[in-house]
Amino acid sequence: MRRTRRAHEVGAADSARALVRLAFGTTAITLAILVVIAALTLVAVGDGLGSLPATVASMWLGIHQIPLTIGEVTIGVLPLAPTLLMVAAVARATTRATDVDRPHSEVTAVILSAIGGPLLATILSLAVVMDASTVMTIQSPDALLAFACTFAVHAVGAGIGVGLKWWSTLVVRAGVADWVLKGLRCGVVAVTALMTLGAMVVAVRLVINWSVAGDLLAAGNGWIGGLGLTLLSILYLPNMVIGAAGALVGAPVAVGGATVDLFGSQGGQVPPLPILAALPDGGAGHWTALLLIGIACTALFVGRLCVDESLLRNIRMVVVAAATSSLFLVIASVLAGGELGVLGKVGANLPVAGVFMFGWIAVIGSVTALVYRALPSRRRARSNIIDDDYYDDDGRGEEGRSDTDDEGVESNPVADEAAIEFVPVDEQTPLDDDHELSPEPGRPEVIVDGWDPEDWALDEVWDDTGSVVVDEPIDAAEGEELVSTDDFGTRRTR
């Protein structure tokens, strides 16, 4: 009893320590990294460390996509790279803290711990920024919006971490159809392929316009400024990739005063960020056809993943994949865009991006399903399946068999099964004790009324010892013909 109680106490203490590490471990490491980066930046620009707390607090809020207002300029387009790293770190920590054999209450505690610690850090950051706003140009953001953004970032990370362990269990308990799961996977594949294609486009455009990127780096006033612009460009790389993905599906993407789409761009004032050198200047020209082929191949690849022998299941999977990819692209575009002060908005046109993404996958996927079904090889495969399940050995169904098919064919029961001859009682040969039952050569075995004479039972008498004494055959009663009897005295007569 004491050992059991002690084990429970140790387990509870370990669980409490694990929850504390989950709540404050990732947060503490992130804040420590931000302190180092902020201190190096302030020292490099020759500023004192007096503004270090406000800088760290602002960076913490920026990681959670909370808009910041400096002076009269509101920066709503924040880099996504730190946010994605935060989500990945929370997901990893949550995965390590949970398991499928844990009760639901512990899983709930894990999720709440993963969210509670960062919310406390956000409260402290808001207090620091509010205090610094009295002596600096930075303004304190909306507290409710700050809490909502922090909650969303860490809830997504915790949900991913728990889902990695509980996905199979949740799917089985919810009874999700297999075609829905396959459609979801194909939708994720579609988004991944589109983002990969967008990253390739950004990389190629940077190589082509490398001289423009070099000029923007040179405008950083020294190697420190150039290093800062380079790091900032890396942090904004996911935003650029998402914008390129939106442009690839045909949606117009606004970058300050400029507008970019699949067929070209319209010039305007843009921020002096080196990564923006990837923006096209003028019409796309022959690049348009190449980009159309790329997005069409992506949709064709997703449609090929959704193929199924059943046309209805195939169309359903294509629709689920199209809806999933469209939803992911819209959410990503919302996160990658926002207000950019006096330069205006940045980001893709959300309704157009969602509709076009759905259209690419749904239309090309449906055409792929129809073509796949019409292929001669698939038609032969379906025909073979139908023949195996519903047709006879001669390859014709019951409706295809005529009444004259069996004419002229003589029945030969001996060829189908062993012949059985029933001998009437009056023609049966009396048997004596020395007679041995053996059929004559070339003649079928003789069966008397369905019973083999060798199996006729003998009279069995039970003695006091429980043993069976076999005597002579049982005589039939008057007017009856004895056929057999069993060990329990049951008589078979006729």
TrEMBL record:
It holds the Pfam family DUF6350. Residues 393-403 have a biased composition (Basic and acidic residues). Residues 472-484 have a biased composition (Acidic residues). Signal peptide: none annotated. Keywords: Membrane, Transmembrane, Transmembrane helix. The keyword DNA repair does not apply. Residues 390-411, 423-450, 472-494 are annotated as: Disordered. InterPro entries: DUF6350. The chain crosses the membrane at residues 20-46, 66-88, 109-132, 144-167, 188-210, 216-237, 244-264, 284-306, 318-338, 350-372. This is Uncharacterized protein. It comes from Williamsia marianensis.
